[in-house]
Amino acid sequence: MTNTNRIYLGIGIALAGLTVSNIYLYSQLSSMENTYASKQSVAAVADSIVTIEQSNNHSIGDFNKQLMDNPETIVKSLAKYRFEQDQIKQHEKSRAIQTLTGALYNDANDPVMGNPNGKHVIVEFVDYNCGYCKRLSPTLEEFLSKNPEGKVIVKEYPIFQNQPTSAYAAIMGIALFYTDSEKYHQFHNALMGARQLSKEFIDSTIVGLGVDLNTVNAQAEKARAQVAKTRTLGAQLEVTGTPTLFINGQKLHGGYSADQLIAMFN
């Protein structure tokens, strides 16, 4: 390709960038991206680009006309770019999970429900004021009851900053786990089953389990540090809402039955 033709190609690409902002192309992208954002389309887009590059005898006007007459080429290019960026992001997320596997699965300071030595492990980021977490809770209970190898690692992850009971429940839950780990599961279920939380309800739940509240409070600072560590981990893993599950190194959300969760380990 001659220098002149390279200039033509550069100008043509710049014109393509301006054309992208056209309302027509914007609307076409929304309707066509699902069609073209696939592995098969990547090859087609590559062929289109090669065809344009090989058309080095066209004038600037001809090149611009070609683009305007074939706007789907730009749409395909944008779809290809989006597809490739999504693949890159997925790879980065998978790599982040692999890097943080120890913190995700092997933190002895995290509460555990089910079989402590179970091989079928679900990690759940949870907030006790989260309605979706409350809906998922019975499913996880069924998962544990049906699966002797089932284990749920609870990442206390209070996200509702406008509800003080979120952080308080998380801290007291972890502090209870440090005090009497066998009582944590009952505490967790009690709070998940409550429609509204208050400090009084949380405290009374602990007392109702036969645990001394002062003893639990003595573990509060250590528990608060664990919540802060979990928040940092959540940010690194891009956990932006609850419930968020990690199963076999994959980040998932709710919507699964207990049997579907069990099947993920088979």
Mean of pLDDT: 82
Measured by DSSP, the beta-strand proportion falls in 5-15%
Morphology call? elongated
Number of strands: 5
Helix count from the secondary structure assignment: 13
Q: Tell me the structural class.
A: alpha+beta
- The CATH superfamily of the largest domain is known as Glutaredoxin
Identify the strand order in the major beta sheet. Answer: 1-3-2-4-5
| Main pleated sheet | 5 strands, mixed
Q: Could you give the order of the helices and strands?
A: HHHHHHEEHEHHHHHEEH
**The CATH topology of the largest domain:** Glutaredoxin
Helix proportion: 55-70%
- How would you name the oligomeric state of the polypeptide chains in this document? single chain
Task: Compute the number of structural domains.
Answer: 2
- In the CATH hierarchy, what is the class of the largest domain? Alpha Beta
Low-confidence stretches: 18-30, 32-38
Radius of gyration: 27 Å
**CATH level-two architecture of the largest domain:** 3-Layer(aba) Sandwich
| First and last CA, distance | 56 Å
